[in-house]
Specification:
The protein has 804 residues and is an alpha+beta fold. It folds into three domains: 30-76 and 87-142, no CATH class; 163-341 and 349-434, Thrombin, subunit H; 449-799, P1 Nuclease. Helix 13 packs antiparallel against helix 14 (590-607).
C-alpha cells in the first residue's frame, strides 16, 4: 500500500513589530533634531514618563556627560579604549558637562539615581520614538529635592537713592509680606510701571516699598495689570502643547515718581536689546549660555541656562512649564567676564557653587553675560566679544525674568536653580514697552567716585615704609582717577570690593551688622532738646565731649521727646579703626592693618561731606515744636515717610553721588589741583580719642566751607535728578568747595594712617611684609562681622571703651 503523502509543517514564526515607515533621508543623525522634534517626543511620552515613580520633571536640552566619563573630553570619533568603563556615579547638573558633540535630548530629572537593572520596569527608556520612526535620546539627571536650610543671605544692600531693576521690593497684605525684586522700568499707555512678579504686584492699590539705603521706602502701588499662565500654543503657536501652560507670573507696580527711577539694572548696567523669543530664535544654542543677574536678596549671581521648557508640575490634566532652567556655574563653565586682577587671578566660578538664588529674588532679570576669553575647545562656543558699552556702564541683553526657584541636592552638591520666563513673552502679553534710556549714565553701583578716590589718593601722601606698604596695596584700597573716569568702570559686589567702599557695598544691610548705618553720619548741628548748644560746637569747645556717654545723652533727649534726629556715631567709628590699626601692628598683623586702614577711608570721606553731619542730610524735614524750638520728626513716622517721597528728599544722593558723575575726570583733576598746592597734613595723634576729635574738626571745616542749607538753596527740585546734579556741578561755589572737602579727606586719612603707624611701631616690620596682599585674604577679613564690629551708641557707652 502506498504511503500517504504528508505535507511538512512550517515552523512557527515569531511575530515581529511592523517595520516603521521609512523617511527620507533614510537616517537622521541625533544632531539634526530640532526643538520641535524634542517637544513632540516629550509630549508623546509624557503620560508614560510621569507615571514612573522616580521621575520628578522633564525638560529639553542637550545630553549631559559625567565629568569623569571618557566622552567628557573626547569627541565620539575617538572610541572609548578597552578597560575604560562607563561611570557608575549619579549624573547631576553640577558634576556633568555639555560639549559641542552633546546630542539634543529630552532631559529627565529623577529623584534618585539607580541602575537600569534595579529600577526594572520603572527605568527611564534610553530612547524615545517619533511616529515617523525617528529616534531621540533621553538624558537622565539626578535632581533630589533639597529640604535643608539655605545659608544666610547678605542682602538686600542697595546703596543708591535711585531705584531700578535689581532692587528688593515688598508688598504687605493680609498680615503677610510678599517679597521680590524689580526687573526693570516699563511703560504702558503713557504711564510708567515697574515690572516684577505677580505675587508682589498683585492686588489693587496696595503699597509697594523698595529697600533703599538700609530701609524700605514707598515707591509705588500695585495694579491689576498682571499675567499668570499662558497656553504654550499662545506664545509659540508652531510647537506642541495643547494642554501645556507656560508660567509668566508677572505684574506691574505703578510707580509714584518716575524721576526717582533709572532704567539701568543695579549691579548690571544699562539694558540692551531684549532677546526676542520666537520659534525661529529659540534654539538649543541657548543651553549652556552664560547669564548674570542681580537679585534683591542674593545680589550678584552668575549662572548658565541648563535646560529649556522645564516641566515641573501637572495639575488637573494641564502641565506647568517654565521657559528656562538656570543653574549656578561650575568649574566646567567658561570663566566669568571679569578681567585679571593685579595678581593675575581671574574671577572664575567657585569649585563648589553656592546657591544661585533665594526667596526674594523673584522678578530678577537674567542677562546674557558674554565671556571675555576665547572658549575652551571642549566648551560650547559662545561669543567672547566684550559687552557693549553704554554711557558709563556696560550694556547687556536681557533674556529671562525669574519667577521662582527649585532647590536640588544629591551627590553632586546642593544648589537652588532659577526658573525664568522669556522677557519678550512677558512684554508681549502685558503689552508694555521696556524702557532702556531713562536716567542712565551711572556706574553699575552708582556714586562711589568720592570714596574710591580718597582711599587711592591717600596712599600717595605717605612716606617711608608705610608708603611702601600702602602703595603696594593701593589698588586694593581705592581706584585711580583714570579708571573712575572710564565709561566702563564697574565694581562687582559679588567679587573683591576695594576696601574704601566695603562699608557701603558689603556691610550696610548685612544681617550681622545691624548698627552699620549709624557709623556713617552724625547729625550734631542742632540744639539739644534742652536748648543747649549743638553737639558739634560743644565738642569743639571741649574735646572731652567726644565721648559715647555724652553723645548717648544728647540723642536720648530727642528720643524721649519723640522727635529727631536719630543717633549717629561716625567719629567713634574712626576711633575704633585707628586703635585696630595700632593693635594690628603690635602683633605684626599686616592684613588687618591694611584692612582697617582701607575701610577707614569710607568714614573719613563721610566726615568731610556737609550733608553727613547735619539733620538737614535729606533737605529740610518736617519740623515740630518742643520747648519753643523746632526739631525734625522721627524717622519712620507718617510725616517722615511722606517727606521721603518728595523730590526735595533726594538732595543727599544727588549731591554726594550723582553730581560727581557729571564729569568724573574733571572732578578728580580738581581734587588733584588742591592737593598739589599743599603739603601733606601732620596730626599729633597717639590715642583713638584724638582721631575722633580730628573727625569733629573735619566736619566743622566742611560745614563752614559749604553749609547744608546752601546746598539745599542751590538745588532746584522741579528738575530731573540728572539736571539737578548738573546744576550743582555747574555752580562754582559747590564744585570748588566739594573738591576741597575731598582733598581734606585725603590728607586727614593719610595723617591718621601715619599716626597709627608710628603708635604701633610700624617701622619695625620686616621689608618682606611690605608687599601686595592677596585680595582673597582681605575678603576673609572684612566678611566677618566681628571685624570692626558695628556697635550701637548704647553699646559704646555701656562698654566704656569710647570715653576720653
Amino acid at each position: 500500500m502506498a504511503k500517504k503523502s504528508v505535507t511538512p509543517k512550517m515552523p512557527l514564526q515569531t511575530r515581529r513589530p511592523a517595520t516603521p515607515p521609512r523617511v527620507f533621508p533614510p537616517r537622521r543623525d541625533y544632531a539634526s533634531l530640532s526643538i520641535k522634534d524634542l517637544l513632540d517626543a516629550r509630549e508623546a511620552y509624557h503620560v508614560y514618563l510621569s507615571s514612573l515613580d522616580n521621575v520628578l520633571a522633564t525638560a529639553i536640552g542637550r545630553y549631559y556627560i559625567h565629568e569623569k566619563d571618557w566622552y567628557a573630553t573626547h569627541p565620539p570619533d575617538v572610541a572609548r579604549p578597552d578597560g575604560v568603563g562607563r561611570v557608575a556615579e549619579a549624573r547631576t547638573l553640577l558634576n556633568s558637562v555639555i560639549r559641542p558633540w552633546s546630542w539634543p535630548a529630552v532631559v529627565v530629572f529623577v529623584k534618585q539615581w539607580e541602575s537600569m537593572e534595579a529600577l526594572g520596569p520603572n527605568a527611564v527608556p534610553r530612547t524615545l520614538y517619533l511616529p515617523d520612526g525617528r529616534v531621540l535620546p533621553t538624558c537622565v539627571v539626578e535632581a533630589t529635592p533639597d529640604v535643608l536650610p539655605l545659608p544666610p543671605a547678605t542682602g538686600p544692600a542697595h546703596v543708591s537713592e535711585m531705584v531700578g531693576g535689581g532692587y528688593a521690593c515688598v508688598r504687605e497684605h493680609q498680615g503677610e509680606s510678599s517679597q521680590g525684586t524689580f526687573a526693570c522700568l516699563v511703560k504702558k499707555g503713557g504711564s510708567y510701571y515697574a515690572l516684577t512678579n505677580r505675587h508682589v504686584a498683585g492686588g489693587d492699590g496696595e503699597v509697594v516699598r523698595s529697600y533703599i539705603r538700609g530701609e524700605y521706602r514707598r515707591v509705588g502701588q500695585t495694579s491689576t495689570l498682571a499675567a499668570d499662565r499662558q497656553p504654550m500654543t499662545a506664545i509659540f503657536p508652531a510647537w506642541a502643547g495643547n494642554r501645556v501652560l507656560l508660567t509668566l507670573d508677572a505684574g506691574l507696580v505703578r510707580i509714584d515718581n518716575v524721576g526717582d527711577w533709572t532704567s539701568q539694572a543695579y549691579g548690571i548696567g544699562e539694558i540692551g536689546e531684549v532677546f526676542d523669543a520666537t520659534e525661529a530664535s529659540v534654539t538649543l544654542d541657548l543651553v549652556g549660555l552664560p547669564v548674570c543677574a542681580f537679585g534683591g536678596t542674593s545680589g550678584a549671581s552668575r549662572g548658565v541656562i541648563r535646560a529649556l521648557f522645564y516641566r515641573f508640575d501637572s495639575v488637573g490634566g494641564f502641565d506647568y512649564v517654565t521657559d528656562v532652567l538656570i543653574g549656578p556655574r561650575t568649574r566646567h563653565d567658561p570663566a566669568d567676564a571679569v578681567p585679571a586682577d593685579g595678581n593675575g587671578k581671574r574671577g572664575g566660578a567657585a569649585k563648589e557653587p553656592p546657591p544661585l538664588t533665594r526667596p526674594g529674588d523673584s522678578g530678577t532679570l537674567w542677562f546674557y553675560d558674554p565671556p571675555v576669553e576665547a572658549p575652551n575647545p571642549h566648551d560650547l562656543e559662545h561669543s567672547h566679544a566684550p559687552a557693549d558699552r553704554g554711557r558709563r556702564a556696560q550694556r547687556l541683553r536681557p533674556v529671562a525674568m525669574q519667577w521662582g526657584g527649585s532647590r536640588i541636592g544629591g551627590d553632586g552638591g546642593r544648589a537652588t536653580y532659577a526658573l525664568g520666563t522669556f522677557v519678550s513673552s512677558i512684554a508681549r502679553v502685558l503689552d508694555v514697552e521696556i524702557i532702556r534710556d531713562w536716567n542712565i549714565g551711572h556706574e553699575e553701583y552708582w556714586g562711589k567716585i568720592g570714596h574710591f578716590s580718597i582711599g587711592f589718593k591717600a596712599c600717595d601722601r605717605l612716606a617711608g615704609k608705610l608708603s611702601t606698604l600702602m602703595r603696594a596695596n593701593q589698588d586694593l584700597i581705592g581706584v585711580d582717577s583714570a579708571t573712575l573716569a572710564e565709561d566702563g568702570f564697574k565694581v562687582d559686589r559679588d567679587k573683591f570690593v576695594p576696601l574704601a567702599d566695603v562699608p557701603d557695598y558689603k556691610w550696610i544691610g548685612n544681617p550681622g551688622r545691624a548698627f552699620e548705618n549709624i557709623q556713617h553720619f552724625a547729625d550734631i548741628d542742632i540744639q539739644g532738646i534742652d536748648g543747649s548748644d549743638p553737639l558739634i560746637d560743644r565738642c569743639l569747645a571741649d574735646p572731652n565731649n567726644v565721648a559715647a556717654s555724652v553723645w548717648k545723652s544728647f540723642f536720648d533727649g530727642f528720643a524721649d521727646a519723640g522727635v529727631g534726629p536719630d543717633p549717629g556715631a561716625l567719629p567713634f567709628r574712626v576711633w575704633q579703626l585707628w586703635e585696630l590699626m595700632v593693635d594690628s601692628l603690635k602683633t605684626k598683623d599686616v592684613i588687618h592693618f591694611v584692612a582697617a586702614g582701607g575701610v577707614m577711608a569710607h568714614y573719613v570721606g563721610d566726615a568731610s561731606q556737609p550733608l553727613h553731619c547735619s539733620y538737614l542730610h535729606h533737605g529740610v524735614p518736617p519740623m515740630v515744636e518742643v520747648g519753643g524750638r523746632e526739631y525734625p520728626v522721627r524717622h519712620g513716622s507718617p510725616d517722615w515717610n511722606a517727606f521721603a517721597k518728595t523730590r526735595e528728599y533726594k538732595i543727599h544722593g544727588i549731591y554726594e553721588e550723582q553730581m560727581l558723575e557729571v564729569d568724573p575726570a574733571q572732578a578728580m583733576q580738581d581734587v588733584d589741583d588742591v592737593l598739589a598746592a599743599r603739603n601733606p597734613l601732620k596730626l599729633n595723634i597717639t590715642r583713638g580719642h584724638q582721631a575722633a576729635v580730628a573727625m569733629i574738626r573735619l566736619m566743622d571745616d566742611a560745614r563752614k566751607r559749604l553749609t547744608p542749607q546752601q546746598i539745599i538753596d542751590l538745588d532746584d527740585p522741579s528738575l530731573t535728578q540728572p539736571q539737578r546734579a548738573r546744576r550743582l556741578w555747574e555752580t562754582p561755589k559747590v564744585r570748588t568747595a566739594t573738591a576741597r572737602c575731598i582733598a581734606d579727606s585725603v590728607d586727614a586719612l593719610a595723617a591718621l594712617w601715619t599716626s597709627a603707624w608710628k603708635a604701633g611701631n610700624g617701622d619695625t616690620l620686616a621689608a618682606g611684609k611690605l608687599t601686595a596682599l592677596d585680595p582673597d585674604d582681605l575678603v576673609e577679613v572684612y566678611r566677618k562681622s566681628k571685624f570692626a564690629q558695628s556697635f550701637s551708641l548704647d553699646e559704646m557707652a555701656a562698654g566704656g571703651d569710647f570715653e576720653p
